[in-house]
Amino acid sequence: MATERDSRAPGGSSAAPGAPGGAGTRLRHGARPASTGPRLLTGAKVVLPTGVVEGGQVAVDGRRITGTAPAGAETVDVTGHWLVPGFVDIHNHGGGGASFSGTPEQILTAVRTHRLHGTTTLVASTVTDEMDLLVRQAGLLSELAEQGEIAGIHFEGPFISPCRKGAHSEALLRDPDPAEVRKLVDAARGHARMITLAAELPGGIDSVRLLAEHGVIAAIGHTDATYEQTVEAIDAGATVATHLFNAMPGLGHRAPGPIAALLEDERVTVELINDGTHLHAAALQLAFHHAGAGRVAFITDAMDAAGIGDGRYMLGPLEVEVSEGVARLVQGGSIAGSTLTLDRAFKRAVTVDRLPVEHAVAALSANPARLLGMSDRIGSLEPGKDADLVLLDAAFDLKGVMRQGEWVVAPQLP
């Protein structure tokens, strides 16, 4: 996926059209809602690692979930609703009319747009560009990671295959030379979380080993690799499939390609874009059947139009038309990322794909949190963890978002 470097002017508020309405509290740039003190949320169906608790409760004191209700806690009756952990997006390029390749103001607009849709932890994804610009952007994003606005950086490109470039600029692609890969890792100052590369290219396997040695996720994507080359990359340390099925050879009975290798290996977490455009429902079911609910991570792969709507956008030098929520290159018609938000991915998972709610929670929260090494803080509603949670009604529409004990979207109750 690619996203624009000079995005549309985001405006003065990070509240995006299409975000939850009503009484929801909307963040503005530089603003954080004041803490409302200890709270006890009661009566909901609470999704815990052990299963669904009917008429459950979640106690919050400050930034954390607690095992018992704090003294003087305000009781919030959310009977008839679901309480699930805050969503974790490990692959996201922007939203609200702004991208993670833009200015700090634009980056914050994108982050806060997705928070309004339940994404309480987000890894900012860059796109293929000149190496010096990627290095510069890595420095900017690392500052926001240090401030706690994002959970790290994902570099999608430039180390990808021209055969499977998608909406990336072919002129800017390059082989994954370990020295160049190391340059991006160093520029991120410890905040590089993941790099997507085509391991079959010269230097690919050595780069996978380099990333594994430095604790950075090596993700296989935008690749033309064979089954055997993909197995070699996994053995070298690759642990993620970047948007499985998309931007890679299809599954063949004589040439199974990367899909089979990535699905069959228990060391690999597979990303899926569950927007109804990138994947047929049968492909999603195939992934869950073979990888299991513990190895799937739903992502948005969102571009600037997420939370904004249809129109024309620029992806670097490439023009994109967003029509009926689907982003495609004007020249060639390739899908150019998505306009997805994770609340929509959740609702589709349980209402269209008919996944158990617990499986959707795993794919949206627990699995990506584990992949990021953050399971001690996020990904489940357990005492001691960050009070990151999403309130959904019986139809699985978003009705509230809490991040670190503060309402991003105040409860919208009848």
TrEMBL record:
InterPro entries: Amidohydro-rel, GlcNAc_6-P_deAcase, Metal-dep_hydrolase_composite, Metal_Hydrolase. Transmembrane segments: none annotated. It comes from the Bacteria. The keyword Cell division does not apply. SUPFAM superfamilies: Composite domain of metallo-dependent hydrolases, Metallo-dependent hydrolases. Binds 1 divalent metal cation per subunit. Its cofactor is a divalent metal cation. Its EC number is 3.5.1.25. Residues 83-408 form the Amidohydrolase-related domain. Substrate binds at A167, N246, A247, R254, H278, I335, A336, G337. It is an enzyme of class 3 (hydrolase). One of its GO terms (biological process) is N-acetylglucosamine catabolic process. Residues 9-18 have a biased composition (Low complexity). Zn(2+) binds at E156, H222, H243. The active site is at D301 (proton donor/acceptor). Keywords: Carbohydrate metabolism, Hydrolase, Metal-binding. It catalyses: N-acetyl-D-glucosamine 6-phosphate + H2O = D-glucosamine 6-phosphate + acetate. One of its GO terms (molecular function) is metal ion binding. It holds the Pfam family Amidohydro_1. Pathway: Amino-sugar metabolism; N-acetylneuraminate degradation; D-fructose 6-phosphate from N-acetylneuraminate: step 4/5. Residues 1-38 are annotated as: Disordered. The keyword Transit peptide does not apply. Belongs to the metallo-dependent hydrolases superfamily. NagA family. This is N-acetylglucosamine-6-phosphate deacetylase. It comes from Streptomyces lucensis JCM 4490. The lineage of its organism: Bacteria, Bacillati, Actinomycetota, Actinomycetes, Kitasatosporales.
